[in-house]
Amino acid sequence: MQGNRRTRWYQSLTLRLLAFFWLLLLLALAGAFMSALYLTRPVQPEMMDSDFERTLSPILSQSDNYELLQPGRLLVGDYRVVARKGGPEDSGLELTPGLAQETAAAAIRLLNQDTPLQMPVRGNMVAGPFPMGSAHLVISRPLTVDELAELENQDLQDWLPNIMWMAVAISGFGALVLGVWFVMPLKRLRTATREIAAGSAEPNLGRLPRRRDELGELARTLGSTAIELATSRDAQRRLLSDVSHELRSPLARLQVALDLLETEDVKNSTHWQQLEKDIFRLAGIIDSILWLSRLENGISQLEREPVSLGHLLNDLRGDLIYEHPEYKGRLLLPEEDLPTLETDPILLRLAIENLVRNGFQYGPEEGKVFITADITGTQCCLKILDEGPGVDESKLGELFVPFFRADPSRHHGAGVGLGLALCQRASTVLGGDIEARNHPEGGFEATFCLPLNVTKKK
């Protein structure tokens, strides 16, 4: 992992993003400016419609009407003289008084044309030049409804698609750059964080640690944190395992010494019985801690073999009754045929046995433990139900935390809170799941589900 070097100001991702947004703003402004130029561009002349010539020919063919055709004069219908140039006295350019500047510019432009043309200007169609002897005229009429609609559609067809495509192109380019530059590294960091949460000391950060901006600095820090967390976690697990191993030797010597001191008189002593019970209980706690440490450190390879659930449960019942004769008749197994699974028999027995012992320990003195099976096409779920008082609903989510005990709502005479933690770790290793709840009809129920890889019925 590279050193956790600091980001220099000119390598800052913040400055790069600001520069990029500034560039996008400039591009947007340039697009808006170009659009404004396009929308305000001068209207180009086009070929004149035949209605001008057809309507005005009788009037314009009579040169003696020249003096009557003053600028601003209404000729026929809505046709009006806009500008006049030349004539018998060569009076120069004459425009309609108060004529709009845009219309005046269009009239002057048309007077300089060689052939008659027309231009839409400010709601009017301006056309010319019309020859009348030595003079030339520019005449206008209001735009028709069809011409107004066509002009509006033409404007929309001209500039609106261009503006839209330009906006799509700019935003698409910006999104692509941001995705590669910013969003994709965040996804990589999110995936690496999940890997660290799963226990990885070397999350896959790709080329992120080589970046010289804030994201690279964050990636390097995340990599260092992963190593530190893994080191601390391993040290804690090793300490727990080492302490457990060290405790077993003096505990074994205590058991041997207790056996050597055993006599008929001593065996009847309450102090002797309590000492034997505590040594046995302490040995169980140490074994549980060792198993928990092994499961948390990870089992490299499961010993998978065909395991008959029916045979396993019958063997478990026999062992429990041999150890605790008072359990006889109190462990009720499923009556239906159970499948055979390809799994690890030791871990499976460990999980089920802890759940059953938990039911006896926290149930009433003469209570029963019921095991039922729910088999579907993909999994087999064993439900272990006792007749105890259940658990406070607010504490159900903490039952699988090591050393947690739900007292005082449940019996407090046995256990240190490792049984359910062991079951959960074992179920995870076996690819299954475990849940706990208070049964609606009373008692505490644990559901242990495993993938169903059926090889035969037994």
From TrEMBL:
Intracellular or extracellular location(s): Cell membrane
InterPro entries attached to this UniProt entry: 2C_sensor_his_kinase (IPR050980), HAMP_dom (IPR003660), HATPase_C_sf (IPR036890), HATPase_dom (IPR003594), His_kinase_dom (IPR005467), HisK_dim/P_dom (IPR003661), HisK_dim/P_sf (IPR036097), Sig_transdc_His_kin-like_C (IPR004358)
Stated EC number for the protein is 2.7.13.3
Q: For this UniProt record, give its keywords in alphabetical order, as a comma-separated list.
A: ATP-binding, Cell membrane, Kinase, Membrane, Nucleotide-binding, Phosphoprotein, Transferase, Transmembrane, Transmembrane helix
Q: Which reaction does it catalyse?
A: ATP + protein L-histidine = ADP + protein N-phospho-L-histidine
Q: Which SMART domains match?
A: HATPase_c (SM00387), HisKA (SM00388)
What Gene Ontology terms describe where this protein resides (cellular component)? plasma membrane
Q: Which domain of life is it from?
A: Bacteria
Q: Which residues form the Histidine kinase domain?
A: 242-454
* Main location group: membrane
- Asked if the keyword Protein transport belongs to this entry, the reply reads no
**Gene3D superfamilies, per database record:** 1.10.287.130, 6.10.340.10, Histidine kinase-like ATPase, C-terminal domain (3.30.565.10)
| Enzyme class of the recorded protein, top EC level | transferase
Molecular function terms, GO-annotated:
ATP binding; phosphorelay sensor kinase activity
Which Pfam families does the record associate with it? HAMP, HATPase_c, HisKA
Q: Which CDD domains match?
A: HAMP (cd06225), HisKA (cd00082)
| Record protein name field | histidine kinase
- Origin species: Aliidiomarina minuta
